[in-house]
């Protein structure tokens, strides 16, 4: 196991559950990945004020949900770090982890297993080789910041920074800042910088869809609506309905921020064909006039200014890049692993099989990475136990092609975000593979549970009701303890829309969704 962040920790737990012997190497001195406490200024990590964009019930693992009395809410990075520490203690994971150890390379050996070369921080020149039957790489996607080449940047005399290293807004007080790119972290970074900067300009290529943390200032977190009910609405209907909603909310939403979110989203007609930025923080600064947005593109930089393609020029002395991360799988030898969409479930390369897997490279458009990683970890552990088998090589490639084609089509708005998956489809299909689908006859003996499975959020705990290492009682208690966000009239309306749209699809009058499963 490589990496002791959230994905690595859940993989250790699932492997131990199946009776496997586990050794985990982590370059840091403590567990938690980007959420660990002692992160260096040159390392990617959480900033001081980080609040998760996924609620506690969607960010936690199905085997260790939040306390039953706790309401749905967004945890701070510190609270989530404590959760990971509690998770590791609960399942006695700490003894498997070797800290301050860097993995230098992974290669197949003549004995049929894999040789992993490592070096410790105390002796970086002393390379030690270990042999394992299988390897899981869980180092995560937030490791190597992406620094794009901006036209004319060699002439710019100011400072160019990346949000991976952002901690707080103090260094930006009184500055003239250009922020490039927007996403969930960027929504907070731009918000905080704009609060204290002399001027702040946001440059974007597209109006990435934004979802409020608490839509419409309501009581439910945004992921409360990630349900089987919503999944059942075809994209050919969902996008037009969203456009109509945005048109209405631009004028009639209850508060100026919600109206501004609707205005922003109105500029992108294909809402559900993108990664959803589940954080409206920066919109507040647009409303109060402290943030200017330019979507025309950067024509060039000068020594102290940025020239946009629409002719606008803005004086700047600092650039903050919110441009994400690039993938680096160079530690795996003799195989091209550069695109996770060429892997089954974003984790299994056809040339590697279950010998070397990648856990943590499935990023749902809505929903949490840890939930997807847990399903990957459960599958990996069962494969190694011989309780599940990979499809043959021909069938495996066909499955990869189909699921990759689905993701390429559905998420055409973010073609470069290769880790992106559809949470509901990904999890439900994986549940069929694992044998932990909640949709079985036994569930229908409990109508209240079925209602929550259909209209409630698709929390990780729904996949612990049945199947390997199930805990029906604990899973049901967690599911029943979380209120359904959809009101009964909304459920009835959605069912009517679903029925009509399916009829129109059957008649050839409406385009069906691409096929993911099968």
UniProtKB/TrEMBL annotation:
Pfam families: FMO-like (PF00743). Keywords: FAD, Flavoprotein, NADP, Oxidoreductase. It comes from the Bacteria. The keyword Ion transport does not apply. SUPFAM superfamilies: FAD/NAD(P)-binding domain. InterPro entries: FAD/NAD-bd_sf, Flavin_mOase, Flavin_mOase-like, FMO-like. Transmembrane segments: none annotated. PANTHER family: DIMETHYLANILINE MONOOXYGENASE. Belongs to the FAD-binding monooxygenase family. This is NAD(P)-binding domain-containing protein. It comes from Actinokineospora xionganensis.
């Amino acid at each position: 196991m490589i990496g002791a962040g959230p994905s690595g920790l859940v993989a250790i737990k699932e492997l131990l559950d199946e009776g496997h012997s586990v050794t985990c190497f982590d370059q840091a001195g403590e567990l938690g990945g980007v959420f660990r406490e002692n992160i260096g200024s040159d390392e990617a990590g959480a900033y001081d004020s980080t609040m998760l964009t996924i609620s506690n019930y969607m960010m936690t693992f199905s085997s260790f949900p939040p306390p039953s009395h706790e309401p749905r809410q967004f945890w701070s990075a510190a609270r989530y770090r404590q959760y990971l520490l509690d998770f590791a203690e609960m399942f006695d994971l700490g003894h498997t982890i070797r800290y301050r150890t860097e993995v230098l390379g992974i290669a197949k050996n003549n004995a049929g297993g894999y040789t992993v070369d490592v070096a410790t921080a105390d002796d970086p020149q002393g390379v030690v080789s270990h042999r394992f039957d299988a390897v899981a790489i869980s180092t995560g996607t937030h490791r190597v910041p992406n620094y794009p080449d901006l036209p004319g940047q060699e002439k710019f005399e100011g400072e160019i920074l990346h949000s991976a290293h952002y901690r707080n807004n103090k260094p930006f007080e009184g500055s003239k800042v250009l922020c490039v790119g927007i996403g969930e972290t960027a929504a907070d970074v731009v918000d905080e910088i704009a609060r204290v900067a002399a001027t702040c300009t946001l440059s974007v290529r597209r109006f990435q869809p934004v979802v409020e943390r608490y839509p419409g200032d309501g009581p439910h977190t945004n992921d409360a609506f990630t349900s089987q009910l919503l999944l059942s609405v075809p994209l050919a209907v969902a996008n037009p309905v969203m456009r109509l909603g945005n048109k209405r909310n631009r004028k009639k939403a209850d508060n100026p921020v919600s109206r501004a979110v609707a205005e922003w989203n109105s500029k992108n007609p294909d809402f559900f064909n993108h990664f959803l930025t589940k954080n409206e923080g920066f919109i507040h600064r647009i409303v109060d006039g402290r943030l200017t947005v330019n979507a025309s593109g950067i024509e060039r930089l000068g020594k102290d200014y940025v020239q946009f393609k629409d002719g606008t020029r803005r004086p700047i002395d600092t650039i903050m890049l919110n441009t994400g991360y690039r993938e680096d799988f160079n530690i795996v030898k003799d195989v091209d692993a550069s695109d996770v969409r060429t892997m089954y479930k974003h984790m299994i390369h056809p040339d590697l099989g279950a010998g070397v897997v990648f856990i943590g490279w499935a990023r749902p458009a809505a929903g949490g990475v840890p939930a997807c990683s847990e399903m990957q970890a459960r599958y990996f552990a069962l494969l190694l136990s011989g309780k599940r088998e990979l499809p043959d090589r021909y069938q495996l490639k066909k499955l990869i092609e189909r699921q990759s084609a689905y993701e390429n089509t559905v998420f055409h708005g973010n073609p470069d975000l290769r880790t992106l998956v559809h949470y509901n489809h990904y999890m439900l299909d994986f549940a069929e593979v694992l044998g932990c689908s909640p949709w079985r006859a036994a569930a229908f003996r409990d109508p209240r549970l079925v209602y929550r499975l259909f209209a409630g959020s698709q929390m990780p705990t729904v996949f612990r009701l049945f199947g390997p290492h199930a805990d029906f009682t604990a899973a049901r208690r967690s599911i029943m303890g979380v209120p359904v966000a959809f009101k009964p009239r909304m459920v009835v309306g959605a069912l009517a829309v679903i029925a009509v749209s399916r009829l129109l699809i059957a008649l050839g009058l409406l385009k069906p969704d691409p096929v993911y499963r099968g």
